[in-house]
Amino acid sequence: MARDMQITIDCADPATLAAFWAEALGYQVQGPPGNFESWEQALDAMGVPPEHRNDASAVVDPEGSRPRLFFQRVPEPKQVKNRVHIDVRAAPGLEGDERMAALEKEAERLAAHGATRLSRHEPAPPLGAGHLVMADPEGNEFCLD
Prior knowledge:
4-stranded mixed beta sheet
């Protein structure tokens, strides 16, 4: 039996990370439920107090084929390197210098949205195509692959 899934990310600022990952993945911030025109209207109707309105956010694939990412506020800061991370496939089918140039261009674009570049790993054939390691606005590592 097939199962649906989402990826959940603990964070301090769900709205900021949702906006970043929507930009990084070509996703969109999930719209409000039901017939509400905005999240503010929905949260008002649900009685959610202002101090809890950024407790969670989600982004979804506009085509509905990739997993939903759910961001939840937690009280503790990030402690260690991620054991699971997202690979953003920014240069599929490209090799060598062309691949690395495409990855560098994407790194610059994402840096303008709050990402930080951590390291560059050069192509090392036959198995290593080359990639960049980045961090999102809260320091969660991800790769541009």
